[in-house]
Amino acid sequence: MDLNTTLAAQYGGNSNTGCVGYLPTPWLPYIQVARLSPPAGFFLIYLPHVFGVLHGAIARQAPLEETARAAAITFAGSLFVSNAIHIWNDLIDAPLDAQVERTKNRPIPRGAVSPSVALLYTFSQTIGALALLPYVAPGYSIRETSIYALPSIVGWMYHPWAKCHTNYPQAVLGFCVAWGIVIGSLAMDVELFTYDPFGHQNSAPAVDFAAVFLFLACILWTMIYDITLGIYAHQDLQDDQKAEIKSIAVLYRDKTWVLLLDMSGLLTVYGIVGGMTLSYYVLSVGGSIVTLSLIVARAELRSSESCWWWFGNGFWYAGGAITAGLLAEYAQVFL
């Protein structure tokens, strides 16, 4: 099996290598449909929560114990959310996936998991995520926490249809993933926005503008990773055109590199507004610039093998750089 075929199976929802290969064969389709191996999909969901937790920890100069608690509870919640949204997406996308070479052998299109079982599987993971919701932000009522979670829930439910309605389904995905920053910040008792329509607290509406810029940067980071703005999406370009699937790659063809440059600018503005120090700019901003420059310079958008390599590695570079910069900034609380 050549590298291209191996990577396509690994990241296309058909992985049966590594630890997964030791599991009983009947279990494999359920691991695959939830994208549990490799866990890149899970970390795509979890890392924005980490960004939010660290943003809140820096803003409040929170003790390590509180930050660790927030990171742990969002880790558990992200696992259930990741499982639910991947299964739901595959369930709705099954007819389209059957028309695309990279996805036609996913568990639902190939018949290894029936639609009814996939729906029950989705519900079970959703219930798990909702059960953890009261523990995410102990300082808030379940009603308040649910209101904060609602936009991402609606977004995740709609996302599978976005590619049929707009040329920017990656932006919808980016919004849903980046909402983890809102939840992560909330877990640290820091709200992205505050508004009390009933006047209980007699406070004016307020917005955490630093977090807004981090949120926008995370949207682009997600787009760069998952459909990778002309990298991952270029793998499916011909199939997407035949199936009339909308995406940024279909719309912009070879001009998608332009959006790759915006993320570093947003991270820089976040640092300025948030009062970050040199360590943040070197690690988060500098690391992202290096990562994006490498992707723009090295990725061959019409080479599937090159696309797969950058799809699997570019995510860790940029996400790791942002995390490292925020961690370095937070570490200064204890110095």
From TrEMBL:
PANTHER family: 4-HYDROXYBENZOATE POLYPRENYLTRANSFERASE, MITOCHONDRIAL (PTHR11048:SF28), PRENYLTRANSFERASES (PTHR11048). Belongs to the UbiA prenyltransferase family. Pfam families: UbiA. CDD domains: PT_UbiA_COQ2. GO terms for molecular function: 4-hydroxybenzoate polyprenyltransferase activity. It is found in: Membrane. It is a multi-pass membrane protein. One of its GO terms (cellular component) is mitochondrial inner membrane. Its main location: membrane. Keywords: Membrane, Transferase, Transmembrane, Transmembrane helix. GO terms for biological process: terpenoid biosynthetic process; ubiquinone biosynthetic process. This is Prenyltransferase, UbiA family protein. It comes from the Eukaryota. Gene3D superfamilies: UbiA prenyltransferase (1.10.357.140). Pathway: Secondary metabolite biosynthesis; terpenoid biosynthesis. InterPro entries: Prenyltransferase, UbiA_prenyltransferase, UbiA_prenylTrfase_CS, UbiA_sf. PROSITE patterns: UBIA. The chain crosses the membrane at residues 40-58, 70-88, 118-137, 171-190, 210-233, 254-272, 278-296, 308-328. Its cofactor is Mg(2+).
